[in-house]
Amino acid sequence: MKADVTALVVSYDGNPFHGFARQEGLRTVQGSLEDALAVAVRRHVDTVGAGRTDAGVHALGQVVSFEADTADPAPLELLRSLNALCGPAIAVREVRRAVAGFSARHSALSREYRYRIVSGPVPPLFLHRTAWWVKRPLDLAAMRRAATALQGEHDFRSFCVAGSADLSTTVRHIERIDVERGCEMGEDCLTITVVGRSFVHSMVRIVAGSLVDVGLGHRAESWIGEALSARERAAAGPTAPSHGLTLWRVMYPDDAWLAPEAVSEGGHARKR
């Protein structure tokens, strides 16, 4: 009989970490979480993350799961313990009980990533750790039109790190891609939002770098579709810097959760 599962919704500043996935001798998000969990639940646990973010990439709603034990602390106690142990670069926002067999990675329906860009001659102050500064203005309308070529199912081999192109398939489906201008912390920024079930390695960062090439006028809008058709990494644009990317949230079926309530930041029960 499979054990019930505990799921954590985790935010982190990716700058001090060598990515999410544990690596021997390096500071990673997964390694830091597992060290904290070993103290909090008094046993070793192996965790599964919804996304293997690269070094420098941030998360607002990463989901991490592990097998629960009847002796584990209650959700509120666990949330408080982990935040005392993990800070300040990692914050556990929510603790949930999931059904037996739940996997943060394999049970996910879709993942949403957001890439932030600050453009123009004035560098970002408050957003400098989470946004790419592009020193020239960008043509937002051209970037939006170019992005439409990426929506739907395509072979994204051109938008995949070359060393990872030996995957069984590089075909992926983008459910939604938006390019919007907004304001955060009083600073104007442009956000590229990409939603899909799964992504090839560095896909969102290469999409962002390619759309910036279009926004700068270095490439025609039609070039994005041509890059897709070429199915080779050299056909697409540069890989945007990692610090501009955030794993925003991960979506799951409603019946993945064992109870209708979750303990979230602030220490209160939150209805779903």
Topology:
Blueprint: E1 5-12, H1 29-41, E2 48-49, E3 58-67, H2 75-86, E4 90-98, E5 110-119, E6 132-134, H3 140-147, E7 152-155, E8 171-184, E9 187-196, H4 203-215, H5 223-230, E10 245-251, E11 261-264, E12 268-271
Helix pairs in contact: 1-2, 3-4
What does this entry look like structurally?
This protein is α+β, with helices and mostly antiparallel strands and 272 residues long. It folds into 2 domains: 5-107 and 253-271, Pseudouridine synthase I, catalytic domain, N-terminal subdomain (Alpha-Beta Plaits, 2-Layer Sandwich); 110-247, 2-Layer Sandwich (Alpha-Beta Plaits), CATH 3.30.70. The chain contains 5 helices and 12 strands. It has helices at 29-41, 75-86, 140-147, 203-215, 223-230; strands spanning 5-12, 48-49, 58-67, 90-98, 110-119, 132-134, 152-155, 171-184, 187-196, 245-251, 261-264, 268-271. Strands 1, 2, 3, 4, 5, 6, 7, 8, 9, 10, 11 and 12 form a 12-stranded mixed sheet that branches. Strand 11 and strand 12 (268-271) form a beta hairpin. Helix 3 packs across helix 4. Mean pLDDT is 93; it is low at 267-272.
